[in-house]
Amino acid sequence: MSRPQEPHRPFFPFGNPFRMISPKGSTLSPQLLAVLHAFEITLGERLKKLTPKSNDEILSLSWMSLAMQMLSETHNDIKTLITDLDLPVHDWDEKWIDVYLDISVKLLDICIAFSSEISRLNQGNLLLQCALHNLNSASSNQFSRARSSLDGWKQHIGSKNPRIEKCGGILDNLVGSLDLPKVKKSPKGKVLMQAMYGVKVQTVFVCSVLAVAFSGSTKNLVDLEVAETYRWAPEFNSLHNLVNEELRVRFSGGRFTVLKELEAVDSAFKELYPIIPDVADPIGTELDLKTVEQLGRATEKLSEGLDLLAKGVDGFFQVVLTGRDALLSNLRSGGTVYDHVSRGNIGAQAVN
């Protein structure tokens, strides 16, 4: 997974986010209001769907995968909205284009970081599978090999991922610039900027939660509050407060990890490791099969969850990259932003 090289621009050098909602002497037509309302209602429904029914669901790999799927769908929605607005490239303010390109380059960086962490966790999972294989073999040195693999897993899983550590700086940049650009004399531009605000808020929130989960630290935790003037604000504020509060509770308890499936593996590891003999050929030694099976089940669930999340992250990467390519292509041709994308199968790039 790689992204094109692009010079970094200042991200969202925006003014008051509410200035574009009801500027002096400017009103939105019923048609434009309908487009905006449809987008915001869908966003609210999506955030509601992401709200977990119980705290146990928070930061499970399946929930994180759903979060990435919802994010891909929202980014596809903004492409549909732009197509519905029929806003030609020559009508785009230069700063809007800078905003979009800067968003995309940062999101591609975050996706690459997430993918690298998923790969790192999968590498650790291979060590667990190796340990389980040795424990189920009849080799004379099965226990020493198993202990070696488990030692390797403990050391590997406790290491840090430099790419994840850099996510905090990207998120800080985004959070510090949540305001929207001033829009003058362009009703369509006002609709676009208000919709993009919703996209950005959801994006920052989801990416910050995954960054916290992967880094094992609350330093990447983002606290946001959306004004109730937005239709999707109640759903977002409810989801945001629930997830962030649970994250703080879990970290205050000194947990090894906040990832549910990884925590289950660590619990099984702690039960199994002390009862594995540390000599090469312990005569007559038998392990508690239930303990071995427990680690096996936990390892399998972790592997399945990581595969699902990897697809979600890659799907989002493709959505962002495709949108970026479409904009650059239309800048060259002078067409309508996303006009040829809307005729393509961009939905297939999202997580199904």
UniProtKB/TrEMBL annotation:
Belongs to the ROH1 family. PANTHER family: BPS1-LIKE PROTEIN. Keywords: Membrane, Transmembrane, Transmembrane helix. It is found in: Membrane. It is a single-pass membrane protein. This is Protein BPS1, chloroplastic. The keyword Ribonucleoprotein does not apply.
